[in-house]
Amino acid sequence: MTSPQARIRPAAVTPHRASDLAAALGAPVPDTDAEVTGVVSDNRAAGPGDLFVALPGARVHGARFAADAVARGATAVLTDPAGAALLTGTSVPVVVVADPRSAAGPAAAQVYGAPAERLLTFGLTGTNGKTTTTYQLDHLLRALGRTSGLVGTVETRSGDRVLPSVLTTPEAADLQAVLAAMVSDGVDSLAMEVSSHAIAQHRVDGIVYDVAGFTNLTQDHLDFHGDLDTYFATKAELFTPARSRRAVVVVDDEHGAAMARRAEVPVTTLSTGTGTRPLDPAADWTVSAVAPEGTGSAFTITHRDGRTLRTSTALPGGYNVANAALAVVMVLESGTGIDAVDEALRSAGGLGATVPGRMEVLASAPRVVVDFAHNTEALELALSALRPTTRGRLSVVFGATGDRDPGKRPFMGAAAVRGADVVVVTDDDPHGEDRAAVRAAVLDGAREALADVGREVELTEVADRAEAIARAVAAARGVDTVLVAGRGHETIQEIAGVDHHLDDREEARAALAAWSEPEPEPEPEPAGPAASRRSAGRPDGRIDHEGTNRPARPEYERTEGA
Ligand SMILES: CC(=O)N[C@H]1[C@@H](OP(=O)(O)OP(=O)(O)OC[C@H]2O[C@@H](n3ccc(=O)[nH]c3=O)[C@H](O)[C@@H]2O)O[C@H](CO)[C@@H](O)[C@@H]1O[C@H](C)C(=O)N[C@@H](C)C(=O)N[C@H](CCC(=O)O)C(=O)O
Ligand SMILES: Nc1ncnc2c1ncn2[C@@H]1O[C@H](COP(=O)(O)OP(=O)(O)OP(=O)(O)O)[C@@H](O)[C@H]1O
């Protein structure tokens, strides 16, 4: 897949000899005077003067596309012995290394003039909170008068150039091109997400972050990493001298505490007391005096040496206090004085950044919130963040991703039932998997949780996501909250290999435009066994209300808890 980040490229690059690059990589030096002015690892992005990095993929060897890259103007190829074997007779020099994935970043950094070294770089890793914290960092850096660039799940930004992202962390060659473009666009600092996939696949090789941050770690991506220990160990690589100069680690969970112990670079710890570990008074920075403010919270951060600062985040939920505090501490640890940070935050009115698809509030009555929570913990946290400020019922519309981490599906179903009053299970991104089977696994967990939840919870299944959102919003009263969870900013839903446009925010806005206060509900009829699973008087269930004109859904199920 061509990463769109590849299209953000620096305007002018000093040519580098392919033979010099080979020598720098410790590879046999080809006898050539060919020069390169760019690096790509996907033939579809190749252009004149590029070094084409032919990577051994899980599906195909990139060397199969080298001829096309050369036809587009590539002047040299970097690959492994298996790739070289596919390239006999090619018209351009071939540089052969044992592991081209780990060579791609350093080679691209060399071609583009080590752009990371010309930026103040912040790299964020962790299971949840990377995107949010990156935006908070970007917001603070701008408040400080800096020109920041951003790389992450939602978008890539260099100066005025903004492109939607395909990957959270781009491929190494694309990433170095983006950083070089930032330098030429006058950007002076970088806030970026570093996924565990990126670390494992050497996408960030060639970058030593000035400050690396760790948010938290919970079960996710085990389909890729195999087990939690490997996932943790992969993240831990970011906190070694090859990849960062110093670390700020949130120690709100056991993994954070372990990461702080394991880090091989100087570590600053931050405890906010919003995770699974209580506030740790021994941490370097602690958060205190958290209080509701506007849509989010005000909080104070204090260093053991007495430095202190009070500010706020507009994003709801305790974990967003942790994200905001992490952003502030990372900037402080980069060398900016606390007075400058305090003044910048005061003049900006705190960390007010809206993060696309992250607790994004679309309306207040009914309150409709779109969030990216797509694992069990994130779903639990998003629901518990919204519960205290929900005056009526809390609904959640969500599903689980197909072809990914099937183990989490029942847990997500159970978390939804424990946290919400109305649970609508729908499709997320089915990818190539049977959609009904994915929903069934979520519903299994949800049904099991219904038995112990001890209060009334409506559980429904609506296969079509747009319809599920429409129904949930239509059924909400003005005092209710509807959380649409799992896809956040995403706009493409892949079903059976076909991409469909689907933006939860567009669907929710359309539903809100059609919304009117639903009729009050009739008193429930005395319930027999059948009535307890169907709402009285409505053939297709309470979640559908008059005016939506929806057909009856055979998948509908309603349960009244004990
Ligand atoms: C599991 C995984 O990460 N796979 C990545 C891996 O794919 P692969 O090994 O299957 O590659 P392949 O398709 O066999 O292709 C091999 C080589 O041929 C090249 N190629 C391939 C086809 C073609 O027409 N032309 C061409 O040049 C490819 O660019 C690649 O260099 O290498 C490809 C390019 O080198 C990546 O695009 C691909 O990411 C896929 C798209 C992906 O979905 N990755 C996700 C899981 C990911 O990385 N996610 C994290 C965030 C996770 C999170 O926190 O949520 C991210 O950083 O985005
Ligand atoms: N610090 C946090 N702790 C736990 N959950 C969080 C935290 N921050 C955000 N979340 C939840 O996780 C979801 C994803 O948040 P965000 O996009 O900021 O994280 P991410 O690490 O970039 O995730 P991903 O890697 O999946 O893109 C949010 O929608 C929110 O529900």
- Within CATH, the superfamily of the largest domain carries the name Mur-like, catalytic domain
Q: What sort of overall outline do the alpha carbons produce when their principal axes are compared? A: globular
Mean pLDDT, to the nearest integer, reads: 89
Small molecules in complex: ligand UAG, adenosine-5'-triphosphate
Number of strands: 25
**Which CATH class of the largest domain applies here?**
Alpha Beta
Which spans have pLDDT < 50 for at least 5 consecutive residues?
1-6, 527-562
Strand content: 15-25%
**CATH fold description of the largest domain:** UDP-N-acetylmuramoyl-L-alanine:D-glutamate ligase
The CATH architecture category of the largest domain equals: 3-Layer(aba) Sandwich
Rg over C-alpha atoms, rounded to the nearest angstrom = 25 Å
Helical content (DSSP H or I, runs of 4+): 25-40%
Strand order of the largest sheet: 10-9-8-11-7-12-13-14-15-16-17
Query: How would you characterize the largest beta sheet?
Result: 11 strands, mixed
Number of helices: 17
Structural class by SSE content: alpha/beta
How far is it from the N-terminal to the C-terminal residue, by CA? Answer: 50 Å
Count of the separate structural domains: 3
